Amino acid sequence: MGKGLLDLEKHFAFYGAYHSNRINIAIHMVFVWPIFFTALLMLYFTPSLFNLPHLNFFLFGNHFVLVLNFGFLLALIYSVFYVCLDVKAGSLAALLCAICWVASSFIASRLGFSLAWKVVLVAQILCWTVQFIGHGIFEGRAPALLDNLVQAFIMAPFFVLLEVHNFILISRIPLPLQTMLYNWYFKLLQALQTFFGYEPYSGFHAIVQAKIEAEINEWQDQKQKLIS
User: Fold this and answer.
1) Reduced to 3 states, what is the DSSP secondary structure of residue 7?
2) CA–CA gap between residue 104 and residue 42 (Å, rounded)
3) CA nearest 154: which of 95, 89, 77?
4) Within a 10 A sphere around the Cβ of 151, how many other Cβ atoms?
5) What's the rounded Cα separation, in Å, for the pair 189 and 201?
6) Which Pfam families does the protein's record reference (predicted)?
7) CA atoms of 132 and 15, how far apart (whole Å)
8) What pLDDT does 226 receive?
9) What is the pLDDT of residue 11?
10) 65 within 8 A of 55, measured Cβ to Cβ
11) Structural domain spans, the chain
12) Do residues 83 and 90 make contact, with C-beta atoms less than 8 angstroms apart?
């Protein structure tokens, strides 16, 4: 169990206390990773940080260049941090970070800066706006970024992956569809053995759920005191 910045149990409980409504959770599942992706897309246009040859690739018959710039550095920092939080789930998140870096580099090279910054601006405004709506209307609580910027910008993509399991449990999804989702993700995430039901360690979800409920109760008590 990690301590401080790497205390997965503590941070996931804090995150869960702000994301207990199934609609709000679904919104974050859809809109958190695009924020990271479009940030990498914009950072593609930053200069190289290392005096190394660029990496040339072909994708769908199109040539593009991978540059070891601030986009690469951001993806690397996120990847290393996630692996430090939890090796198995963190490795999956690190793989997704790498895929985002490569894919965003490809798209950025095709769009060019003059169009890319407009796409990024629209995407960022849309993603952040929808998440604020999710908190304001469905969760009924201000987003965590107002209390913990580090968690909002660095940990959220990782926690979204861990939330997929909880989302299916609390959602009223028909059993056949649940089965299909489980099977689809099982094939995608074989490196994690079985992603759904995965715990960083035995009893993790139970401990975190208890902390989430305690955090929510404390917030509700404080809110009630302010009202009275």
Assistant:
1) coil
2) 8
3) 77
4) 19
5) 18
6) Mpo1-like
7) 15
8) 64
9) 79
10) yes
11) 7-227
12) yes
